From TrEMBL:
Keywords: Hydrolase. Residues 23-257 form the AB hydrolase-1 domain. Signal peptide: none annotated. GO terms for molecular function: monoacylglycerol lipase activity. It comes from the Bacteria. GO terms for cellular component: membrane. One of its GO terms (biological process) is acylglycerol catabolic process. Pfam families: Abhydrolase_1. It comes from Phytoactinopolyspora alkaliphila. The keyword Hydrolase applies. This is Alpha/beta hydrolase.
């Protein structure tokens, strides 16, 4: 599913693609990922849904301009405007990692309306941001200037830590490819340097006001965002459904693809359309 379409927004170029027929489902990726992580799921659902994939500016095949902010406040505003560009009133939204904060900010601060929201191992609650994030924030220019071979080794080690079961060589190549070269390497460190917990601190008090069906799905072995966050998040959102997937780390799409696909299909075809558990 190639991202052949473009959306121009405040000097940025967002690459996106659409396929299928039926109710609309929009996938939001996280960091340091791209829409490619959701592509197999979108392809499988396209027989029953109209699926949308997009890369945030600074990621994947969207624009990576050095002086453009890629912080969460920007991405949240952009996502709300992108839904307007697509003329989608109430799509289902499926979000992972950083994409969760993007979807939540778009909804809570910028008026984006959803038919349902599936939050999969998302950035949403304090504390988040590792020692590595803080180190990069303090020395982003130095990291961006390291020799490509050094960058490649560090990048692979970083990404490997997101998986509980280990990554196949082909999967690793797809994940590191957008972050190579004269454009990709500095973009990788730039998006880490601009990560700031303040953007989720701002909306965390608003979670109890969310009034739509919400699924919180999480890998039990996620070391990047431990599973206690899933319990806390589900407890804050009225009627949220919590589903834990055993044996999966933060890269739950690759660690437990069958279990996650079944969970999302069940949610979109039943739970996401109906009333959240506990609110019947």
């Amino acid at each position: 599913m190639e991202l052949t379409e473009e959306f121009a927004w405040n000097g940025r170029t967002v690459r996106w693609g659409r396929r299928g027929t039926g109710p609309s489902v929009v996938f939001c990726h996280g960091t340091p990922w791209s829409s490619g992580l959701w592509e197999p799921y979108a392809e499988a659902l396209a027989a029953e849904f109209t699926v949308y994939l997009w890369d945030m500016p600074g990621y994947g095949v969207s624009s990576k301009v050095a002086d453009h902010s890629v912080a969460l406040d920007v991405q949240g505003r952009l996502f709300a405007d992108l839904l307007g560009h697509w003329e989608l009133d109430r799509p289902h939204v499926v979000a992972h990692d950083y994409g969760g904060a993007v979807a939540l900010r778009a909804h809570l601060l910028h008026g984006a309306s959803y038919r349902s929201l599936a939050l999969v191992d998302v950035v949403a609650l304090a504390p988040w941001g590792s020692d590595y994030f803080r180190l990069v924030r303090e020395h982003a220019d130095a990291f961006a200037a390291v020799p490509p071979a050094v960058h490649d080794g560090a990048l692979r080690a970083y990404i490997e830590g997101a998986s509980h079961v280990g990554l196949a060589g082909s999967d690793m190549e797809k994940l590191v490819a957008p972050w190579r070269g004269a454009e990709g390497q500095p973009a990788f460190y730039r998006q880490i340097a601009q990560a700031d917990q303040a953007y989720t601190d701002e909306i965390e008090p608003l979670y109890p006001s969310i009034d739509l069906p919400v699924l919180v799905a999480w890998g039990t072995e996620d070391t990047w965002i431990p599973v206690d966050r899933a319990h806390r998040l589900a407890g804050l959102i009225p009627g949220a459904r919590l589903e834990l997937i055993d044996g999966a780390g933060h890269l739950i799409q690759l660690d437990a693809p069958v279990a996650l696909a079944a969970t999302l299909h069940r949610w979109l075809s039943e739970g996401g359309v109906g009333v959240p558990p506990g609110l019947e």
